[in-house]
Amino acid sequence: MADAFAFGDELGPAKVIQVYESSLGLKAVLVVDNVARGPSIGGLRMAPDVSTEECFRLARAMTLKNSAAGLPHGGGKSVLYGDPRMPREKKEALIRAFAHALRNEQDYIFGPDMGTDEACMAWIKDEIGRSVGLPASLGGIPLDEIGATGWGLVQCAEVAARYCNLRLEGARVAIQGFGAVGRHAARFLATRGAVLVAASDTAGTVVNRKGLDVAELIRIKDAGRTVCDYAGGEKLERDAVIDIECDIWIPAARPDVIREDNVQRLNTRLVLQGANIPFTAGAERALAQRGVLVVPDFIANAGGVICAAMEYAGATQGTAFAAIEEKIRANTEAVLAEVKAKGLLPREAALNLATRWVKQAMENRRFGIF
Questions:
Q1: pLDDT per residue over 206-243, tens digit each?
Q2: Domain identity same for 209 and 319
Q3: Catalytic residue among 77, 91, 221, 327
Q4: Are 199 and 181 within one domain?
Q5: How far from 37 is each of 32, 152, 335, CA to CA, in Å?
């Protein structure tokens, strides 16, 4: 637990809970970062190489994301060590056991994230009655199925494009991580006339500079195959997607995929951070010096949590999509206007916005506690 305090500050974390059950092979972490605005909402991430530090950084991103979006929720995150492709029965047992261990943690509401989906949220709902991103059959708004985060990214793109003299029609797009977020971002951007020229997943990268068939790629992924099964285009190794010249580059995979040691490989004009904490701070500074506009994660990819919060409040899918459009467009405009007026980095402007609202909420809490 000692390392949990090494990355705390005035905003949090409020609590860090580590869960371990050797007989099940259960090893997991919950970080509730800040609940000044209300109970925290954050996804359950499942991967073999997650960590407490990653969980905290993701929980902080959720605090900032929920604040910037004006939601009555704080930030939290949970991570579960394990291969999400393990047999369904074992995965269900682990997730149910983790949820049961957190049954009394009323400050945290589970949502889906990398490695988990609507079915996982249904298990948690059955176990403890507290999750979002549920299947439609349970009255939920299935975030991944409808593409809530991708819908938010295209709203962000339409606003941000004006700040780098870019037209979405004909804009070349490369997406790292053609999963739940990436495929819907591609789908919605295609309706604006953008052209997907490269996409990657864990198996590799497929490239066609004249344009990939987005609908066909989605059919391939829905069938459980990889982007490298796409019939047309050049097949490259997984990280080659970083090198593809494009107008819009969307990271929709893991944290820290762009760092000081590889940022020079990016050749793009606009980055929309579809994943949480995908770039290091040094990489973002380097891109700003080159004139590349990077819209931070907690502004660009807030569509999923906005939808989750709307579901929790009993809203319909149509109302949720309208809220995503309104909030993300307004926040992107506010952040980029401040960047232009004050010469700030986009993340600095976004942090100013979100942190100010969190601190105002903290002032109304008893003893100012987070």
A1: 999 999 999 999 999 999 999 999 998 999 999 999 99
A2: yes
A3: 77
A4: yes
A5: 12, 22, 21
